[in-house]
Design a protein that fits this description.
Elements: E1 5-10, H1 13-17, H2 20-33, E2 40-45, E3 57-59, E4 62-64, H3 69-80
Parallel strand pairs: 1-2
Antiparallel strand pairs: 1-3, 3-4
Helix pairs in contact: 2-3
The structure holds FE2/S2 (inorganic) cluster.
FE2/S2 (inorganic) cluster binds next to α1.
Length: 84
């Protein structure tokens, strides 16, 4: 169900140094722009234990690794298309 979509981005230090902050900003903008803020819960999370592959993002139960600014839009398009 749309209401059940949750995204957690790792805010651990390793993911931070790999650019999670820019990704967070992008996701916030994306959700707003596509009117998805009320359908998707987006929160920060602690280290997910996959530091060397970060930035890491959990979408429901799926872990997405290497979520950089260049990849994030495509990932969101793919994962959230059904909610639009
Ligand atoms: S800091 Fe993000 S997985 Fe460890």
């Amino acid at each position: 169900m749309a209401q059940g979509t949750e995204m957690h981005i790792c805010l651990g230090s390793s993911c931070f140094s790999r650019g999670n902050k820019e990704v967070v900003m992008f996701i916030r903008e994306y959700l707003k722009k596509n009117h998805l803020d009320d359908k998707v819960t987006f929160k920060g999370a602690r280290c997910m234990g996959h530091c060397s592959n970060g930035p890491n993002l959990m979408i429901n139960d799926t872990l997405k690794e290497g979520v950089t600014l260049t990849r994030i839009e495509q990932i969101l398009e793919q994962e959230l298309a059904r909610l639009k």
